[in-house]
């Protein structure tokens, strides 16, 4: 067992040494792998942050039902009770006109101007939230038609339309992201595979001698697999650094922009768990790329007398 | 240890390199394989080291039929045979020690054992003080001795050499042949391909003569008795321990 471990440590150190002896080629390969890994991860972070910034999709399906001016509050409350009995409704909140004015005065910054008004220009309104399982586009449209049909209702506002569209775009991006991950993952495999192929060619004489004295394919393959893993680890490490740098660089600007809209949103980067997953994926891709390359090319090298 | 029974070898798109060749070599025998260039000497060695498989006939090496041995078992098979080449086939960027240790490293031998055996092997060929040198820092004769040390480090029962003295002056050639003779004396079957008739005559060992892929003579055993073609190999001795001679 200790011999087995010693051989693996030897293969790992040998692979490290070879990479260190060709620093430029190593750095270039690691940069290519790093960028290929960073692109889909960055895109995933963009999608994730955009979702957080726009809030939960379920919260976005909120209707605001504005009653006509002069509609008595009692009638609004009666309609609210009726609405609560309709299937598929989660919450109905009644906001009297006086409360709405108070909130508007507090939040809008036009307090003094509003104080000059003799009458309250705002109507009573309802905040209606359907159950998540009844939030399909058809059901939402059906509910909108139902609310609009009330004679007391002036406007039915579905403020979340843009969020819905934005989330649809994010869904497309998310699907595209998977495709991009697969393509760039294949790119990493190709980069590692080609680098290992070149190294196998450069070390052809050594491989022949090793096989000549009884080295098995598994033995010959070992240092190349470690090289692949090291490339993958290096690339993933660089990708994590690029992402971290990007988040640091944009973080303050994004937070300042969000603050302009009264949001406390801040850009989220990779968690330690995400970083670990990225590094593991990098190592696995490197190992797999090397495995494919060695499987394909080592078999062709046989010792010659 | 080695037997060829009606062995033929035809390379792709080439003429027959060997044609119905039969001979046997026993344990502790030193045999010269001679013939002109292209006679088939290298092909015989390749068939023994399983670098090639016979087209027809049977090659038995150390009890193994090389024609039917599965590919996955070839590395283990090769570890039983020591091979010395005219061009040494050393790793020029590794020190002598690493070159000699390679057959043990590929066999996952414990490090302490490797250390002991590398030094013993280098002692055998008189290069103990050169273990840290790179092959390029050695003379051609010394490089050849490194090749021999590497070939014998696994304590093989069979040692084969392809023109091991081809690049050496007569004095160095004789020195290398004496090294082979020492291994033969401890029970190793040694087969040396050479066309240096002067050298062969000096050693007076059995000769297998090839010409254009056919066997001209399977030689006379050193005991003086004619060697029987396709004779059954004698019983195998215990694995020779080269270190025991130190």
Structure description:
The complex is a heterodimer of chains A (305) and B (246). Chain A has 305 residues and is an alpha+beta fold. Chain A has helices spanning 2-21, 23-54, 57-60, 73-84, 97-108, 111-115, 137-148, 161-202, 204-212, 217-260, 272-297; strands spanning 63-67, 89-95, 125-130, 153-158. Chain A is built from 11 helices and 4 strands, in the order H-H-H-E-H-E-H-H-E-H-E-H-H-H-H. Chain A has a 4-stranded antiparallel sheet. The longest helix of chain A is centred in the last third of the chain and has 44 residues, at 217-260. Chain B has a 6-stranded mixed sheet with strand order 6-7-8-3-9-10, sandwiched between helices. Chain B has a 4-stranded antiparallel sheet with strand order 2-1-4-5, with helices on one face. In chain B, helix 6 (170-185) links the parallel strand 7 and strand 8. In chain B, helix 3 runs parallel beside helix 5 (140-152). Chain A binds chain B through residues 2-4, 6-7, 10, 205-206, 208-217, 219, 302-305, and chain B through 42, 45-46, 49, 51, 72, 75-79, 83, 85, 89-91, 102-103, 105-111, 150, 154, 162.
H/E topology pattern of chain A: HHHEHEHHEHEHHHH
Computed structural class of chain A: alpha+beta
**CATH class type of chain B:** Alpha Beta
CATH topological fold name of chain B: Rossmann fold
Profile the largest sheet of chain A: 4 strands, antiparallel
Instruction: Say which CATH homologous superfamily of chain B is assigned.
Output: P-loop containing nucleotide triphosphate hydrolases
Total tally of structural domains of chain B: 1
Flag low-confidence runs of chain B. Answer: 221-246
Characterize the overall form of chain B.
globular
Largest sheet: spatial strand order of chain A: 2-3-1-4
Strand content of chain A: 5-15%
In total, how many beta strands of chain B? 10
Distance between the termini of chain A: 34 Å
Strand content of chain B: 15-25%
